[in-house]
Amino acid sequence: IKWQVPPLGTLKLNTDGSSINNLCAGGRVAQNHIGEIIMAFSSSFGTGNSAEAEAKSMHLGLRLCTERGLSISSMELDSLFIVNCFNDLWDPPWAIEYILRDCKNLISPNVSISHVFREGNGLADKLASHGHSCQ
């Protein structure tokens, strides 16, 4: 399993969240159709669980893309739980419901949000791990 390039002329956003001892961090990377990194970030989010870390990482990634005028065509996460909550297949916990609602406001309706196994989300995973050392 490896990262798959997005269609020609488009950007893909991969995000990942991490919670260790109730401390959350996240990583995000936007890449183009030839795999060039357009944007990559690590962040610490303070206290919370893994679902909150995943949701906050996705939210910040979408906000950063929007602020920089980057239009993404797809987004991948290795959290099936968050993907299913975002796609209205499952009810999200109240702690992340507002975050997911705001995420939906940050993207156009044609952007696909899908699950990818951790191996296909390696760079975002490494950035999330690095986020635990960020202030």
From TrEMBL:
It comes from the Eukaryota. Coiled coil: none annotated. InterPro entries: RNase_H-like (IPR053151), RNase_H-like_dom_plant (IPR044730), RNaseH-like_sf (IPR012337), RNaseH_domain (IPR002156), RNaseH_sf (IPR036397). Pfam families: RVT_3. GO terms for molecular function: nucleic acid binding; RNA-DNA hybrid ribonuclease activity. Gene3D superfamilies: Ribonuclease H-like superfamily/Ribonuclease H. Residues 14-130 form the RNase H type-1 domain. This is RVT_3 domain-containing protein. It comes from Cephalotus follicularis (Albany pitcher plant). The lineage of its organism: Eukaryota, Viridiplantae, Streptophyta, Embryophyta, Tracheophyta.
